Amino acid sequence: MVDTQRRFSRASILGITILCVALAILPFVTSTTSLRQASQIIVSVLAVLGVNVATGYGGMISLGHGVFVGVGAFATGYYVDDLSLPWLLAIALGTLTAALSGALVGLPALRIKGIHLALVTLGLAIVFQPLSKRFPKFTGGVSGTGIDARFDAPNWWPGDSRMASAVYRYLFCVLVVVLALWVTWNIVNSRFGRSMRAIRDNDTAAAIYGVDLVSARVTTFAISAGLAGLCGGLQVLLVPFVSQDKFPAQESLVIYASAVVGGLGTIWGSVLGVLARTVVGKAGDAIAGFDGLGPIGEFLNLLDEPAFVFGAGLIVLTFLFPRGLAGIGRKRQPSE
Predict the structure, then answer these.
(1) CA nearest 56: which of 307, 227, 308?
(2) pLDDT digits (tens, 9 = 90+) for 87-96
(3) Is 4 a member of any domain?
(4) Who contacts 173 (Cβ-Cβ below 8 Å, separation ≥6)?
(5) Which end of the chain is more exposed for a tag (fewer CB within 10 A), N or C?
(6) Contacts from 204-212 at CB under 8 Å and sequence distance 24+?
(7) Domain that holds residue 141
(8) E-strand stretches of the chain
(9) pLDDT (average), residues 226-237
(10) In angstroms, rounded to a whole number, what is the distance separating the alpha carbons of residues 132 and 259?
(11) Is 272 part of a structural domain of the chain?
(12) Domain presence at residue 120
């Protein structure tokens, strides 16, 4: 078992090293548009991390985390544009707004759990789009709203103005995501994190040992929603436009599926889930570009559809790695 843990540890260190090198050289080998797209992929880790906190560590299945991404985005846009608050304060308040909404949504988790809680959160994801249209002052209604404020590089930042701002936003997003991963790691390994896992494994036993079920569940959901809201705030920073069209119910399912593919109950799994989703999508685009394959080519045309690519990739990855990518090389526990 020690050898297995060492191999897994070495694999983790190698993976983190490769990822850090890739993140470091990316601004030097890509365009402004590609760098913005890379930044959007990086911040999406936060939404998957939020699901991981709620489901992987807290044991509460949430199929509606796209809602909290939307709340964070709409709130940040309102704070930075309508109230003219500084970007950092607006993002912080947007995250807090999403966390508070998560605490409210987490209240049903006090009485229901499992598939019933999953259905409640999925229902929330379904009604979020039509509901957000009814509050045009905050959401821009049907057409959405542009954000006049810009998160541009300061004068002392080196480089051409457009590319410099893209690199500045990219580095800011990377820093925030790394900080969020570190903070979350500390939370799940703290005394509160042990309470979360105790409730996940056996809430009755946890209550007997003095864990406050109400406080722990609501706090867990609030932290989870706050991470998703932070993702939404950073999305507005990268693309100064918010619209309800960006938050369909399907997006919440994709976020949850990414967490499962990466590996629930692991911080590293949130990163792997987003990487897997990105790689599968890019592979689909590449294969769909081949011509002259006859009937096979007709089938491969389906790979132009992102939903088909991700769905097919999810099926394959689930069969190959039922415990998620982060579970590769880990010894199965007796309880699993």
Answers:
(1) 227
(2) 999 999 999 9
(3) no
(4) 39, 42, 43, 234, 237, 238
(5) N
(6) none
(7) 29-247
(8) 145-146, 241-242
(9) 96
(10) 26
(11) no
(12) yes
